From TrEMBL:
Domain Peptidase metallopeptidase: 7-173
Protein's recorded name: Metalloendoproteinase 3-MMP-like
Upper classification of the organism: Eukaryota, Viridiplantae, Streptophyta, Embryophyta, Tracheophyta
Source species, domain of life: Eukaryota
Family named by the database record: Belongs to the peptidase M10A family. Matrix metalloproteinases (MMPs) subfamily.
Entire protein: shown range: 149 to 321 of 367
Length: 173
């Protein structure tokens, strides 16, 4: 079953159109950005929320970036595996991904020619869909195939919202 953060934080009722931006120093390719677009679309399909990319990182509601190790928010990343990403509950909107993971998109490594074991591959879209759930105010679910279930097998792709995720987000929005 789905859960919320303590105090049930969520984006205010008069704010249904959310913006997002990528950290400028990350220099992300369109292939990477499209993965986030697809992940946001899954949540906007089941709510009245919309998500629009804007150029200004400063003024975006949701700020997305890849960082390595200590990146000055008190929650340092830990290199390959362990913590993959973290997102802060509304209305903070910070969405950070560990730049040292072996991220894959549709089964292919992001870093061209990067050689690594399938055991450490992490599917970017799966993590994005999960973290956006947190950004919207969802905690973890006890339903094993829900997006918000707190574990994901190595190399596993899990991107489809389940009923449990949909009921949870629809209770908030
Ligand atoms: N990051 C954790 C997560 O997003 C951070 C976290 C730990 C957390 N406890 C929490 C967030 C309690 C909110 C509430 O869950 S993670 C997965 C999954 C992670 C894990 O790097 O461990 C995904 C990030 F579900 F696969 F295990 C994304 Cl999809
Ligand atoms: Ca890590
Ligand atoms: Zn961070
Ligand atoms: Zn989580």
């Amino acid at each position: 079953h789905y859960s919320f953060f303590p105090g049930r934080p969520r984006w205010p009722a008069n704010k249904r159109d959310l913006t997002y931006a990528f950290a400028p120093q990350n220099g992300l390719t369109d292939d990477i950005k499209i993965v986030f677009t697809r992940a946001f679309d899954r949540w906007s399909e089941v709510t009245l929320l919309t998500f629009t990319e804007i150029a200004s990182y400063q003024s975006a509601d949701i700020k997305i970036g890849f960082f390595s190790g200590d990146h000055n928010d008190g929650e340092p990343f830990d290199g390959p595996m362990g913590t993959l990403a973290h997102a802060f509950s509304p209305p903070a909107g910070h969405f950070h991904l560990d730049g040292e993971e072996n991220w894959v998109i549709d089964g292919a490594p992001i870093v061209d020619g990067n050689f690594f074991s399938i055991l450490s591959a992490v599917d970017l879209e799966s993590v994005a869909v999960h973290e956006i759930g947190h950004l919207l105010g969802l905690g973890h679910s006890s339903v094993e195939d829900a997006i918000m279930y707190p574990t994901l097998g190595a190399g596993t792709r899990r991107v489809e919202l389940r009923n449990d995720d949909i009921l949870g987000v629809q209770e908030l929005y």
